[in-house]
Write a structure and sequence with these properties.
The chain has about 325 residues and is mainly alpha-helical. The protein has 2 domains: about 90 residues, DNA polymerase, domain 1; about 180 residues, Orthogonal Bundle (hpI Integrase, Chain A). Helices cover about 55% and strands about 5% of the residues. The protein has a 3-stranded antiparallel beta sheet. Strand 2 and strand 3 form a beta hairpin. Helix 6 packs across helix 11, helix 11 crosses helix 13 and helix 12 crosses helix 13. The longest helix is centred in the last third of the chain and has 22 residues. It is globular and about 60 Å long. It starts with 13 loop residues before the first helix and ends in a 6-residue tail after the last helix. The relative contact order is 0.10.
Length: about 325
């Protein structure tokens, strides 16, 4: 049984109806569940892939069956998608169909019998302290853009903040006197995070006359841009793509020969703090992890690095 409540599930207007249902779901995610704009956008992309699959199968959100879900997962795997991507997309489809059942749009959930996708637990690979130092020292110019990049890199490492949190940072969120920043994490959860003297110095330089004021436009395009801590050269709020490029370029200049992202600096911040004796609960609070088990990943990283050094240095450590 399809659970379809409309007699014209596959007829004209089915695509528009499905689109309207997806938008209702996305509003629910934002308003009722408190998901961020980036999270909602990710759900929308994953569900778009599901809808594309359904169009090929000549089905809709209301007529999809268990076999369609299985075929969707198999098609993703056959197409070379990473298991983490497949698991994420299946999770988005599950949540959508559970919503449709809860809202009495469907009688049944075609994802209820779908098997989960196993995702290998990856251990983040942080930079070592020397590599971070070289990366932070790699921006040497004196233009407003260079000053911004130095402040951004130092702030990411100092706070362990997610790149979405940093791009969304407003001037009012910074307390330069107390050296504390207010960050809004997943689910719009607020937390206060301290930052050290180096990050304070770089931020002060950026907020000073030769930094951010040099990128302020004659006319602001939006209040969102006016409030932003980090700006582009065109006076817009710094976006995630540009921030990623800043990190990658700094890593390349520092001679780090592997793929870098802002998240590597978050990993590095957490790992280095634990290696130097920080309490696990404090690091959890600082990173905004809902579960201590997420933060414990970094203790494994620290232990593995300790063993790597030991094996390489001790004459009787064995292979």
């Amino acid at each position: 049984m399809s659970g379809n409540r409309s007699p014209a599930a596959g007829g004209p207007g089915a695509s528009e109806r499905d689109g309207a249902l997806v938008e209702r779901f996305c509003r629910w995610l934002s308003v009722e569940r408190g998901r961020s704009e980036n999270t909602v956008a990710a759900y929308r992309r994953d569900i778009a892939a599901w809808r594309t699959h359904l169009v090929g199968a000549k089905r809709t959100l209301l007529t999809a069956r268990d076999a369609d879900v299985t075929a969707f997962v198999e098609a993703l795997m056959a197409g070379g998608s990473a298991s983490s991507t497949v698991a994420r997309r299946l999770a988005a489809v599950r949540m959508l169909h559970r919503y449709l059942v809860a809202e009495d749009v469907r009688d049944d959930d075609p994802t209820s019998s779908a098997e989960g996708v196993k995702v290998p637990k990856g251990v983040p690979t942080p930079l070592d302290v020397a590599e971070v130092g070289e990366m932070l020292a790699s921006v040497t110019g004196e233009s407003a853009e260079d000053i911004r990049d130095r402040a951004l890199l130092e702030f990411l490492y100092a706070t362990g903040a997610r790149i979405s949190e940093v791009c969304g940072l407003d001037l009012d969120d910074l307390d330069m006197t107390s050296r504390v920043v207010r960050l809004f994490g997943k689910g719009a959860k607020e937390r206060l995070v301290p930052f050290g003297s180096q990050a304070h110095a770089r931020l002060s330089e950026w907020l000073g006359a030769g930094g951010r004021p040099m990128l302020v436009p004659d006319v602001w395009r939006s209040p969102e841009d006016r409030r932003a801590v980090f700006l582009t050269v065109t006076g817009r709020r710094l976006n995630r793509q540009k921030a990623w490029n800043i990190v990658r370029e700094a890593g390349a200049r520092a001679g780090i020969r592997r793929e870098l992202s802002p998240h590597v600096l978050r990993h590095s911040c957490a790992t280095h703090m634990l290696e130097h004796g920080a309490d696990l609960r404090i690091v959890q609070e600082m990173l905004g992890h809902a579960s201590i088990s997420t933060t414990q990943i970094y203790t494994k990283v620290s232990t593995e690095r300790l063993w790597a050094v030991y094996r390489g240095a001790h004459p009787r450590a064995g292979r």
